[in-house]
Amino acid sequence: MRESEEKLEAASDQKSRIRERYKGIDEDQLDVIPAIPTEDFYKPNSIKRVAVYARVSTDDPRQTSSYELQKNHYTDLVNRREDWKLVDIYADEGISGTSLKHRDSFIRMIADCKAGKIDLIVTKSVSRFARNVLDCIGYVRQLAAMSPPIGVFFETENIYTLNPNSEMSLSFISTLAQEESHNKSEIMNASIEMRFKRGIFLTPVLLGYDQDSDGNLIVNEDEAKIVRLIFFMYMYGYTCTYIAKTLEKLECKTKRGNITWSASTVLQILQNERHCGDVLARKTWTPNYLDHKSKKNNYDRNQYRQKNHHEAIISRDDFIAVQRMIQNAKYGNKHILPELQVIKEGGLAGFVSVNPRWAGFKPDDYREASRSVLAQEGFEQIPSAPLSIDMEPGDFDLRGFEVARGAYFESADKILMTMAGDWISFNNAAIHRFHDKRDVELLIHPEKMIFAVRPSSKEEKNVMQWSRPNNGQMISKRISGRAFMPTLFDLFGWKKEYTYRVIGSFSEMDGNMIIMFNLKETEILIPDHIIQERSDGAERTFINRSKDTVHAYPSDWSSGFGINFYYQAQADEFAALSLGSEDICAASEPYKEPDLQTTDIGTISSEIDGIMEDLSNHG
Fold first, then answer.
1. Using the 8-state DSSP alphabet, how is residue 520 labeled?
2. Number of domain units in the chain
3. Geometric angle at alpha carbon 99, from 158 and 90, rounded to 5°
4. Is position 551 within any domain?
5. Burial degree of 588 (CB within 10 A; 0-12, 13-18, 19+)
6. Tens digit of each residue's pLDDT (9 = 90 or more) over 365-388
7. Is the pTM of this model over 0.90?
8. CB pairs under 8 A, 24+ apart, for 205-213?
9. Measured distance CA(393)–CA(174) in Å, rounded
10. Residues 226 and 358 in one domain
11. Range of the domain at 248
């Protein structure tokens, strides 16, 4: 009880002391040192170095009057005040206020402020200064924090940013200015959408065309010759860089009248669908109205295409062929219409030759090419019959025995193929079986899931190099598969983040060699971090860890050590080759007519010569 009373008394004494202290002292005992009074914007007590900022948002000639009026008005305004001295007029013409991008004069003005050249900025309104809230408030605060502080005067709103109560008004008005830009952007997008829906397209002039009084594209025959030359040279196999240099030698002019050409300019012409008479609207779109950064329209917004919108300079099939060539140029492709080729006869019938430089093929293309062989006259697919073994007296009965899988054994002679998402490689044991031949052809049978490799020559279209010389012998070389491996992975139903490895079998007949791989008997090399993230136990039950990789095997391997002896002896891949060595050498052929009727190579060559001669004489 006594303790509680003491606490109450202590608290009461503390409050009394606080009250006594806050009564203060006599003002006569204090010396007050006065602060420099805040300068009245309208009655300054010193000369101000003034910068004027003016901006109009478009390059429309009608906006020039607004631009000039702003400059003239503020020049007169500064000259009328004796306490203001004009530093410069910083003006941006044809620039949006929602972003600082390309606002060179604004950025130069801020730099001059930092250099101590400016005391005050005068501008017409908040929206002229910036339509982005963050930019507006951010720069106002940055200027106010300088020593000495720099103020901004917005004439229309009568706001001076160094006034203590200005920020709330400025924040509100700049938000309205930003929202106004947003509304304008939405209205413009809606207007464009309505135009496109009615087939009213924006068709600015381009090389090969002029515009009539209604804005329609009319072929300019002199310029059209240059366009045809560009397309035909590219189809013939010339690069964009070479074409650009050729046009400069011929002194051909761009649409703007320049005689300097670049590879990018040539590429833009090759990719413009208007040269084949079509119009594709909304190739790009702008996700954010504040930064105005456009991006490729990957089905983010509606696109509209109108075929035969105007007279074509290039045939549509030639144009499509060029787009395919451009798409696959990074893989080394130089053919107009690469063909998917299939072997149509012999033991390898139905095997499709892998094109190493064309990314346009899909899994269904491989399946269709393989199945097309079955449709040939006199060729019939015979369903697989159940395994039947007839034993003769004295035969050694191996029923119930298995040939153990090679994956369970380590051997220097084991032939291995490893396939990843963008490459394929073979071990040195495979390389040496082909007597160090560098060039090979890859074959795939989509239905049987069998992969084959056979020697090839440099003249073959689908040739690949699988080895390289090293200290007098050939060693394995990884084959880049960026063009074809993604399609093969889809075809096999494989995961792109895994690496697959399979053992091969070698066969040689009369000097002709081939290696076969059964893709149903693959092991998977899975990165350890993926195993930790998710488990694929339903697919692969047996695993073997090796450093940072997990080796996974098919779940059906759990029922035995290998393949039934008689199944192995009658394996599809080698039973098919029993007809003779000529079957291994059967050449692959196109399995169907090309889907495009492009200009033939002879006509292209003569057209190039004729146009170049015409342009030379004209020059």
1. G
2. 3
3. 60
4. yes
5. buried
6. 899 889 888 766 444 444 444 445
7. no
8. 205/255, 206/255, 206/269, 206/272, 206/274, 206/275, 207/254, 207/255, 207/269, 208/275, 208/313, 209/274, 209/310
9. 101
10. no
11. 209-331
